[in-house]
Amino acid sequence: xxxxxxxxxxxxxxxxxxxxxxxxxxxxxxxxxxxxxxxxxxxxxxxxxxxxxxxxxxxxxxxxxxxxxxxxxxxxxxxxxxxxxxxxxxxxxxxxxxxxxxxxxxxxxxxxxxxxxxxxxxxxxxxxxxxxxxxxxxxxxxxxxxxxxxxxxxxxxxxxxxxxxxxxxxxxxxxxxxxxxxxxxxxxxxxxxxxxxxxxxxxxxxxxxxxxxxxxxxxxxxxxxxxxxxxxxxxxxxxxxxxxxxxxxxxxxxxxxxxxxxxxxxxxxxxxxxxxxxxxxxxxxxxxxxxxxxxxxxxxxxxxxx
Length: 306
Hints:
The protein is of the alpha+beta class and 306 residues long.
């Protein structure tokens, strides 16, 4: 057995994309959570932060499903969604209606916008990420009182830290480090990220973002992704950071969010009305394509349905 794949990346957040649309729908039935750790391994597999599966949808031209590198459910991914849109338009023949295209995701049906695709190529995608979720119960977060949660105190080996907690269809704990550890590049996120991710205050675990405010229009962040680890970028994380910074009065309505893998532009006009959507704009790129052969698609316990 073999399955073709496309390697894609947005701001360095990279994925193995599997087409399970139409005649290939049977591919979606494979045990991708069990296969993901092997496929995403950067030594014995393709190497990726996760797997994107393009599935048929009754609500939109396609559904994007995400499996994290450890096999857990990814819920939602903004960088992945931009790459997914590029794939649909360039490789699957899906065409936007005007400038927009709808995609079903784990966070609901979202709209993406491409403003220069007449040549059949897509480089820049704007995604309507929907409104931020600020209610602690829905994030989910164990916190007394209503949202937004601007300062949720957590004690771990470095002391007590206050996190701003936001969900963008997946949970995020945002730590503004200015005045404490200064440059996020110097912080041992690989050591402390797992402790925050698995803190019992986060019933579904959490993504962790550490942030420097460079100016009222420029944020710098690093991310520890739930179920993945250190990554070059996180689209939902960039949106969560923007929302958290705006709620704290640290930035205006739009800002550049710089991550190790690249920049995205985020717009949120929801400080007074949190029901406003968050918009993220960034690049989407294809890296290479190949074949997953039986060595990667065979499970030791023969759980996969051939």
